[in-house]
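Pilot study result, target chain (187 residues):
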Amino acid sequence: MVHLTTYERVTLMADALRHAADAFAKLTHTGIALRQSVSCETQDIILAEEEFYVLTTEVKGNLQGKSYLLLTVPEAVWVIRRMNIEIASDAEWLSAMQQSALLELDNVLSAAAVTQIANQLDVFCYGDVPLLQRMNASQLRSLLASAEQHYPLLLYAGYESADCKLAAAFIWMFAATRIQPLAQTHL
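Predicted structure:
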């Protein structure tokens, strides 16, 4: 078993989330940077906006957890446009194509991060099919608080872009600090 300290978890995730930032930049054809990566608790996460698109990916395998990509409604519109899909600024609902664009974004970002984690720790893990929901800040707080009961290790990352007021958040929650490497897994 591998035991990770808080510092090791944050360092590992920062590296994984930088890979996700690179994938984010490629998908949106713009500069995206990892603003911060910290270990925290759900009550420490400040949700300034009222409405979010929340993309949830369950992490399965030897490392279990969940990731939540949070985009405000204006950020989601910006991302969709950067992926060359038309959308009105005041769109109340997303078309199937627009929803697919956000799901693909999450799929690519989660895969970039999960692959880096799996390679660094030599573990078998993968991200399941993402789920897209639109919710207000209160609903989001409840969702994160509920998830924290099952996945107490929480890491928060913020992304930013010079091209827009992007403050997208990527929240990762894991079930344990002890991880079974592939070399020690009995098949």
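One observation from the pilot: The domain at 2-178 is CATH 3.40.1550.10 (Chemotaxis protein chec). A full batch analysis is planned for the follow-on phase.
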